[in-house]
Amino acid sequence: MDLFKDFKTADRTLWEAAVTKELKGETADKLRSKTEDGLQLEPYYTAADLPQDTSRQLPGDLPYRRGLRANHNDWVLFERFVIHDAVQTNKEVLHALMHGTEGLIFDGTIPDPQTFGKLTEELLPQYLILCFRNTDPVPLAGWLKAWADRLELPGVALRGSTGYDPLGAAYFGDEVRHLPLGPLVKQYQQHLPAFLPVSVNAARFRDQGASLIQELGIALALGNAYLNRMLEDGLSLDEATPALQFELAVGTDYFAEMVKFRAFRQLWAGLVYAYEPKHSCSAAANLLAVSAGYTLSAIDPHTNLLRLTTAAMSAVLGGVHGLELRSFDEPVNGGSSLGAELSRNIQLLLKNEAYFDKVADPAAGSFYLESLTDQISDHAWAFFQEIEGQGGYAESVASGWLKAQITTHRRSLETAVASRKKILVGVNQYPDQQHAGIENWPGSDFRLSADFESLRRQTATAKMRPKVFLLPIGDVSLRLARATFAGNFFGCAGYDIIENNGFDSMTAGCDAALKSGAQVIVLCGADAEYPTLVPEFCRLTGGKAELVLAGYPKEELEAYRQAGIGHFIHVRANLLETLQQFQQILLS
To answer: Kindly report the CA angle at 231 between 225 and 233, in degrees rounded to 5?
Structure first.
């Protein structure tokens, strides 16, 4: 039975007509928008937006757009352990393994085989994926081989990566020993063939403010630079590419973050095939995803759990090999055992209760997601070509070009957050008004919330927490809407917000405001009623507090200023700059 034979095929012309009708004569152009990366988002997508060749691709097939696994979507649940005391770290590792962790990231220098032995005591490496950061890969190879021999395991039983990324580390000023890559790769492939000796850590650039597109372009450029160095050292292409692991950050732009992993696999396969490999598997990218640290906030840190969940879903649905989720409280105290447990459980829930590991490439076939995959691919490839046009990755870093590109995007992000074009729940919108500051003062790492954290710090350490009195009056719907807006606005600085349902008279409202001892009084009403309300409001409260009007009636601004209104708050105001001005007035 053909259930669709009586339905007319809806082409783009019919969709456009339907949209125009719903918008009462406006076209669909009104609904089109762009992301911060310049990606064009359409109001709707049809089969015409589906790339033609995707219908013939299957999971596990070149160019690996749909993933490397043909019949499942399982991934490795990673947890990071910063090495301070080897014995204590080993205890934490064993606890995590008993509670669901599958992959370990040891972050820190391991100076000698004794420390390595203490870290790995009682571990069974044949059941784990082991990743290292900031440890010299040459002695590490010897320790891993000796460990395998002691346990009577073949070298291939040890799987993981060294995290050795000398070109990436140079950008950040890290001291790393620069080794000939050919001998290093041969050493690992001879004794530890399932251990990847070279890493491309593009996630670090994302946490410095790089865009999603820039991150992918940098990953391609770094990977290409390593390929060329390995080829110059005498390795064949089919020996070089399996030595690489890619590490990408995953943020909170749900759909874009999801399909960027599909896009990167496709791009890397295309790049590798330009070198004419003998085996198709040489073009497969091993992807480890790490939740982006710049998206986390020390303000209202429990909202980070929602960000981490969104990031985890994006990475998993994008088909990564492994995923590390940071602790929700990392910006507050560096991460606690509770934070590690909750991040672990997010992934366990996605596996064991949501069954995200069962379906290969669940994003496939969506007109929107397939189109977005191609868009990201095109933009990322263009940025990679810009880097190559500078002479390659190393030259783009040496000239300062790459840093300038990242800095420009970082500033655009900070501006978007300051003006609330980019919303951070709990930070620049819907703040927790019960708490003035944050639990602890975070470090200097770049985070989108950093400027607002500074505001909260000033408020929390002030001798007296400023009070803001909301005075709603007049039209019920408008006064409540503007009072809500004003409460959110000043709440982002951690001020004590005194809310009211509304007043029947200006005299009653002003009396209550002055009795409250508030340093700021906000008049919340309708523009049409302000000509009557403002003069009386200023007469009754003038000189006794900072007077604020919720709204921006352009025609009356000068008259209201003359009457005594000192400030206007509205949706087009720069939230951060306005609050910084109030900090100078109230806390100086």
So the answer is: 105
Instruction: Evaluate whether residue 552 is within a structural domain.
Output: yes
Structure tokens at 567: 């400030």
Specify if 438 maps to a domain: no
Report which of 213, 294, 250 is spatially closest to residue 35, judged by C-alpha positions: 213
Q: How far lies 189's CA from each of 106, 131, 203, 450, 573, in Å?
A: 21, 16, 26, 44, 59
How many domains, in total, are found in the chain?
A: 2
d(CA 246, CA 219): 7
User: Cβ of 530: how many Cβ atoms within 10 Å?
Assistant: 21
Q: How far apart are CA 73 and CA 261, in angstroms?
A: 13
323: left (phi over 0), alpha (psi -120 to 50) or beta: beta
Torsion on CA atoms 342, 344, 346, 350, rounded to nearest 10: -160
CATH assignment of the domain containing 141? 3.20.20.240
Gap between the Cα atoms of 382 and 378, Å rounded: 6
Which pLDDT tens digit goes with each residue over 111-161? 999 999 999 999 999 999 999 999 999 999 999 999 999 999 999 999 999
Helix (H, G, I), strand (E, B) or coil at 99: coil
Q: In what order do the strands lie in the sheet with 567-569?
A: 496-498, 467-472, 520-524, 546-550, 567-569
Could you give the C-alpha distances from 12 to 23, 28, 46, 424, in angstroms and in order? 16, 11, 7, 35
Which amino acid makes up residue 354? A
pLDDT in tens, 391-430: 999 999 999 999 999 999 999 999 999 999 999 999 999 9
Regarding pTM above 0.90, the answer is yes
Amino acid present at 5: K
Q: In whole angstroms, what is the distance from residue 336 CA to residue 444 CA?
A: 19
From CA 513, how far away is CA 152, in angstroms rounded? 78
